[in-house]
Fold this protein.
Amino acid sequence: MTRTIRRFPFFLLLCAVWWLGLRCTPGDVAGGSGSTTTNGFTATIVNSQGDVVADAVIHVRPEEYCASGSGPAVAVNGTVADTFSGTDGDVALSNLQPGRYTIEAFDVHSGQGVVVRSVIENGPARDIGSLKVEPAGAIRGALDAELLKSTGQFGVQIYGMERFALVDSATGTYQFTDLPPAEYTLRLVNSDTSFNPRDIDTVAVTSADTVAIDPYTEWNHSARLLIHPAAAGLSAGDTVFNFPLLLRLDGSNFDFSTERKKGNGFRVTKEDGGTVPFEQEWWDSANGIAALWLHIDTLFGSREVQTLRLYWGNSTASQVSSSLAVFDTAFGFEGVWHLNESGGTEQEDATVNNRSGVPYAMDGANDIPGIIGRSQEFEEDSQRILFDSLQIVNSGRDNNFTVSLWVKAAGVPDSAQGIFSRDDGAYGLYLDTGTQWVLNGDAPGFPNGFCTASATVEQWVHLCCVRRDGLNVLYVNGIATDSSEAGSSGLVAAFSDIVLCLGGFSNNSGWFYGVIDEFRIYRYAVPEKRIRLCYETQREDQSTVEVKQ
């Protein structure tokens, strides 16, 4: 069972837990079972049946003590103490400095423990009676993505306890387990000393329970995001990793009046509270439309529904959008262009490669609504976008890669129209006069290098060109329509200076008339399941992603 406490403004979940139950050497123990005690306490550890608990681990720490994370504190007379209950369950510790202490007893055999706070005074030891152990609980949490921008390593401490959890720098998650039922105060720290530690007050842990602390008390709105894998064609045996999932928001599923700062306060978490990185491609509050790309680290075909959580409505929150986290080159992306910049400016690459597309004969009039956010309309001769140094798109038979994009042709052409083309003509995609999509997969004249498929004009079509193990394959709306043998590997050259033309042929002819959106190049052959997943989740009438208020 998991309970959620709305408390401190950063989320929660798993990471690392320090459970320290090392048997101390004789010089380390402050006092011991059966000794005459002063400035200390005595107690008996029992279970729920009243039977004594021998060999329970005992930690005694000042209430303001916080573990450093570098290892257990050395037990020193008068400050901290570690010992074990005796065979009769008794504990006796002496020579402690007067003050307020946290006393923890934990039975590692049963996974049960107890925590009490006690005052140690000068004079005879205080008998605190029988301490009954109970089943342990847990705390899980995660930091807000805004905090993860900080330098240094985050960690979480518990006041008065020998516990320290490192925060996973990628997900912001951490976890404490084996916590006896009690109320705790946590402390967030960072290895960068310029960071001011923050307290998370009064976290109540009960027996056999996991407490998930809701960090978003300052966010006024939330909703569930439901992902239906079967609707995107995934079967029970399918698992997809590191997938950029499109989230469209409009008046039917989102009230834009509740998020006025252009989506700055938008946050996404997993079911367990872990941060979901995202890129905000487009946010238009005035017209009530937004497009975001969420990084889904694992999409499970075996689940009927996979749930995320959306948060928004915090006017003081900062923007955490990151295209690099979603379209990481480590996931195989060579270049991703949303084509949402003003038509007369460079089209930015969402990857770290930063290969911007340079427009020619285009201006702001070419920037129009697309299938995803904004897009580029090609409506006159010579309008094109050029991309330099795309050496991944070469004619090598064994050089696997993928090119994908959304296309909306203006009509049936009178002559062939180039959609994209290498500047040497060795690879490209065009719309011919017979209303066919044609993938030219090799150098001009090679007889087996072409793939074709029936074309539909005046509506959005997802086209994907794959070079896979010596074959060219053309996918239309997620379905493989044709394949051909690629040319010989002798065609490979040093293609570091290759220019790719979007919107026409490489010889300044065959201008495309229509709209293009979401242009991507991958440096591997994208599997068929993933291609269909892209199509099904990005199409206008998709049924995979659902926002539930």
